[in-house]
Amino acid sequence: MIRFLFCFLCLPLLSNAQKADYRVIPLPQQITADTTRVFLLTDGMEIGYPSGNPEIERTAGFLRQYIEETAGLNMKMTSGSRRAQIILTIKPEKRRNADTADGIYNGKYTIRIGKDGIALEAPTAEGLFRAVQTLRKSLPLSKGQPVAFPCGEINDQPRFAYRGVHLDSSRHFWTVETIKTYLDMLALHGCNQFHWHITDDQGWRFEVKALPELAEKGCVREQTVIGRNSGVFDGQPYGGYYTQDECREVVRYAAERYINVIPEIDLPGHMQAALHVYPNLGCTGGPYPVWQVWGVSDDVLCAGNPATIEFLKTVLGELCSVFPSKLIHIGGDECPKKRWKSCPKCQARIRDLGLTDDGQHSVENQLQTAINHEIETYLKSLGRDIIGWDEVLEGGLTEGATVMSWRGIQGGIEAARQHHNVIMAPVDYCYIDYYQVKENWNAPISIGGYVPASKTYSFEPVPNDLKEDEKHYILGAQVNLWCEYIAYPSHLFYMLLPRLDAISEVQWTDPRQKDFNDFKLRLRHQFRLYDRLNVNYCKTVE
Ligand code: TNX
Predict the structure, then answer these.
(1) Interatomic CA distance for residues 66 and 59, integer angstroms
(2) DSSP 3-state assignment of 50?
C-alpha cells in the first residue's frame, strides 16, 4: 500500500522529469546504466563534501553552480553530511602501476548512481573535479524540473597525461575575462594544459618589471595589415599587455580548474616586438617596428651578442616567478638564419664555440641549439624544464627538451626515438586557426587550409612506426589557435568549438570507443550547453 502511494505521489514528479545522459564529450571510458531505475534530483537537495577541505568545497560549489545554470535547480551545500544526495569523497587507492603519469592518475574518478543519490569518488581532488564536469554535462538543459539519473556507474580516467590547448595572445590581445572563458571551455573538456603564447613579432604582452619599456612599447603596433598581407593597413594603433598580477590571476583561475599554464616566450625568432624596444639585440641594429604584417620575420635576436642571453635570463627569471609550470615553452620555431649568416658577431660566436657542419646540422642551427642549451641550464637552475617547437631538433636536441611536433608527426617520432618527451600537435589535424568548413566563402576569414572537426577527431597521436618502448614518450596532444586573423571573442570561440570537442576525445577517450557519427549526435546536447553558457561555436560540423 505504502509502495503504491509512493509511486502515486512520485508519478507527477517523474512525468516531467528529464533524464540525465552520461554519454558526454569526452566520452567516459566505462558507463553502466540501468534506465529502469532512477535517482530523482529535485530542488533543495544537498551536495555534501568532506569537512575542513576547502579545495573540495570549491569543487562542490562549482557543481552547485552548474546544476543551477543547466537544470535550474538550487542545491544546498553541507560539509561532513552523510545524508546529502550528492556526495563528493576522496577514496585513496594504491597506484596499481607506479609508471602511471600524474596527469592520468589525477584524472581518475568513479560516479555511482543509486536510487537514493549520487556518490562521486576519486583518489585525488582533481579526479573529483573531472567527475563534476562529467555529471554537469550529463544534465538536461531544463528550467527547474526534477532530473532523473539512471542508476549505474561511471568509471573513467584519461588516456593521455598531457591534454593541451594553445592560445595566441600576441597577434591579437585577449582580455583576462576572455581568457577565463577560454579556460572554462578547457575545463569542460577535461584539458589540463593551457599553452599561452604571449610574445611574438606583432606584440610583446608580458610585463617584465626590470624592463618596463619592453611591454609598454613592445605591445603596440602602429597599425595592422588588412586581410592576408594585402599591403593596405588600417592606420589604427593596436596594443595591450598582461601585468604580472593579471598573469597570476590567470594562473590561479586555471589552477582552480586543474589546468597548468605553460607560458611561451618564443625565441630566438618571433622577437621583432622586443627588437623594437631593444634594437641593439638585433644583428643589424634596427630600427625595427613592432611588426604590422603576418608571416616569418628575418629579424631575430642576435646570437653573438652576450646581451641577448642576459635579456632572456631577465625575462625568463621573472616569467618563472609568475608561472609555476614545470614546463616552460621557449618556442624555437621559424627562426630564419639569414641575419646570422652575415652577422660578424654571430659568426665569431660560431667560431668560438668550435661549431662545424656535421652534414646533419648546419652551424647556424647548432648556434640556435647553443642558445637553447644556455637557456635550458638557466631554467634548470630554477627547477624548470624546456619545451620547444620541433625546429629545436634541427641543431640537435638539448638534454631534457620536450618536443612539440607541429610540422607533422615526424619531429615527434624522431624525438621519441631519441627518448625525449613529445606533444603531438601536427598542422593537418591540430591547427584550429584553419577553416573548418569546405564552403568557406561566407565563413569568417581564416589563415586558409581546411581542418574540419572530423579531421581533428580522426587524429591518432601515437604513431605505429614507434617501437613499444618508445610509445610512452608521447605524452599527449594539443590543438593550436593562432590569432593573426582572429580579433574578437565570438570569432575565437567559433574557431575553438567544436574542434575542442573533437580533440578532447583524442586526448581522453580510448580510441576503440571513438565513432564520429556518434560524436556528432552527442554534440547536439553540447551545442545546447554552449547556447546556455552564451559561448559561440561553429554550427556546421564536417
Ligand atoms: C606557424 S606553429 C607558426 C605561427 C603561426 C602559425 C599560423 C608555429 C610554431 N609557428 O607563428 O601563427 O603557423 O598557422
Answers:
(1) 11
(2) coil
Interatomic CA distance for residues 309 and 372, integer angstroms: 10
Biggest CA pair distance of the chain: 97
Residues 97-124 have pLDDT tens digits of: 766 789 999 999 999 999 999 999 999 9
Helices (H) and strands (E) in the chain, counts: 19, 18
- In ligand 1, the atom with minimum distance to the C-alpha of 404 is 9
Residue 24 cell numbers, joined:
558526454
CATH 3.50.30.10 fits 16-156, yes or no: no
**Model pTM greater than 0.90?**
yes
List helix spans (H) across 189-331.
212-218, 244-256, 272-277, 306-322
* CA pair distance 394, 439, nearest whole angstrom: 37
Is 491 noted as a catalytic residue in this protein?
no
**Structural domain spans, the chain:** 16-156, 162-533
Segment 220-254, tens digit of pLDDT? 999 999 999 999 999 999 999 999 999 999 999 99
How far, in Å, from the CA of 480 to the mean position of ligand 1? 9
- Å from CA of 62 to ligand 1 middle: 35
Mean pLDDT for the stretch of residues 438-447:
96
Ligand 1 lined by 428 (C-beta under 6 Å): no
Report the 10 Å Cβ neighbour count for 521.
10
**Separation CA 98–CA 106 (nearest Å):** 13
User: What is the b/e burial string over 191-203, where b = at least 16 CB atoms within 10 angstroms of the residue's CB?
Assistant: bbbbbbbbbbbbb
pLDDT at 371 over 60: yes
Helix, strand, coil percentages, rounded to 5, for the chain: 40, 20, 45
For domain 162-533, the CATH superfamily is Glycosidases (3.20.20.80)
Q: Is the CB–ligand 1 distance for residue 291 below 6 Å?
A: no
Residue 418: CB atoms within 10 A of its CB come to 15
Kindly state if the Cβ of 391 falls inside 6 Å of ligand 1. Answer: no
Cα 218 to Cα 282: distance, rounded to the nearest angstrom: 15
What's the one-letter identity of residue 201? Answer: D
Q: How far is the CA of 49 from the centre of ligand 1 (A)?
A: 45
User: Within a 13 Å sphere around the CA of 323, how many CA atoms are in the beta-carbon half?
Assistant: 35
Q: Is 270 a catalytic residue?
A: yes
123 sits in which H/E element: none
Dihedral pair phi/psi, residue 121, rounded to 5°: -130, 140
172: annotated active-site residue: no
